[in-house]
Task: inverse folding
């Protein structure tokens, strides 16, 4: 069976790191005997320049007809002053996320022992490799709950979750834990919030379906603190939209470079895979961006959308071998080391697959 991938390189470093990911894809296709059908589309600033629309109809159609979307990044100063609906962020990426009905965001955060110096956390805290995954609910909660109101002297938001919504995201958390170290920490604020009391009750009920997963619970304020004090205790964190927004950024920050962090956003039918960082206009066009976030986003796509687990694992092993072997782009370089270019890093990864 052939799968179709919508490939959206976007702006800034997007096309540079997307090229790396597609080079890696070609190698694993050959090695693991599969072939994906790729079709490129425009999104973001480049799409606005070409068509006047940051999410052209052709791109929307391409994505809705694909089995998965692999995105680079969008945006840059050139398009910052456009009307909101024409900006790469609102009119492009957020609009696409809505069309795909994405409901779960998976963000791994990895701190290699060899890259400890990049992290703001101390060596004492980072005794070994940190490798955690935040599974964030993306389509409900306080960002979308009604009523929502703003007057001159009152602001109102509503945090609401239904049982069905919690079950859907919690299953993603349990399944992710099953793919990893089988430890799931559900983060809520069940000592205060009704939506969290329901969240916790539903997660506990659901745990019966996953007897191999060890479930714990943590209040969000404590989780924010524990990520700083002892990130090694976490494997998979599952949480609501607001809490996940904050905790996944916090866990990204402790990793040191955005260039290392992939992400997956799961939709009902079609999922989207992209680096956690943006278009990095400060280094775009210089050939020095770290391609690892894009390459690991590809690995997430192969595993989550197509169950090509061996190919995904081979990519991850090759990335690990490069990073631990001292091959570094400028964002993860230490004094005395020589930085490699985007292309050199890509070749080094490919040679280790
Ligand atoms: P950014 O993530 O683009 O850059 C922040 C810092 O991280 C920069 O110093 C950059 O050089 C570095 N960085 C990011 N990715 C890197 C990589 N692969 N290799 C090496 N260094 C890397 O965030 P920003 O500067 O706040 O935003 C720039 C533009 O990107 C803005 O227009 C913003 O709206 C957009 N943006 C897009 C996305 C997305 O496409 N999903 C996400 C965030 C920001």
Result:
């Amino acid at each position: 069976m052939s799968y179709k991938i919508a490939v959206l390189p976007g702006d800034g470093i997007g096309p540079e790191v997307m090229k790396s990911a597609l080079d890696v894809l070609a190698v694993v296709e050959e090695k693991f005997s599969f072939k994906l059908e790729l079709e490129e589309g425009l999104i973001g600033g480049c799409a606005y320049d070409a068509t006047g629309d940051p999410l052209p109809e052709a791109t929307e159609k391409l994505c809705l007809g694909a089995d998965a979307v692999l995105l680079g990044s969008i945006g840059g100063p050139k398009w910052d002053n456009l009307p909101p609906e024409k900006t790469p962020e609102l009119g492009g990426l957020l609009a696409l996320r809505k069309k795909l009905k994405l409901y779960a965001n998976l963000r791994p955060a990895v701190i290699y022992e060899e890259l400890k110096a990049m992290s703001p956390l101390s060596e004492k805290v980072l005794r070994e490799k940190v490798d955690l995954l935040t599974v964030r609910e993306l389509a409900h909660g306080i960002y979308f709950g009604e009523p929502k109101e703003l007057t001159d002297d009152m602001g109102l938001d509503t945090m609401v979750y239904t049982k069905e919504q919690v079950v859907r995201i919690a299953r993603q958390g349990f399944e992710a834990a099953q793919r990893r170290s089988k430890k799931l920490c559900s983060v809520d604020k069940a000592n205060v919030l009704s939506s969290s009391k329901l969240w916790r009750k539903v997660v506990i009920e659901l745990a019966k379906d996953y007897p191999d997963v060890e479930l714990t619970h943590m209040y969000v304020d404590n989780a924010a603190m524990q990520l700083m004090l002892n990130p090694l205790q976490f494997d998979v964190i599952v949480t609501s939209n607001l809490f996940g927004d904050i905790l996944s950024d916090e866990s990204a920050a402790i990793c040191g470079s955005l260039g290392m962090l992939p992400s997956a956003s799961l939709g009902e039918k079609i999922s989207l895979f992209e680096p956690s960082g943006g278009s990095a206009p400060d280094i775009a066009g210089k050939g020095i961006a770290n391609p690892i976030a894009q390459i690991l986003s590809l690995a997430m796509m192969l595993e989550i959308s197509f169950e090509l687990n061996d190919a995904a694992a081979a990519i991850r092993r090759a990335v690990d071998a490069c990073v631990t072997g001292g091959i570094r782009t400028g964002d993860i370089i230490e004094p005395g080391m020589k930085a490699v270019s985007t292309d050199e890093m890509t070749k080094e990864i490919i040679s280790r697959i």
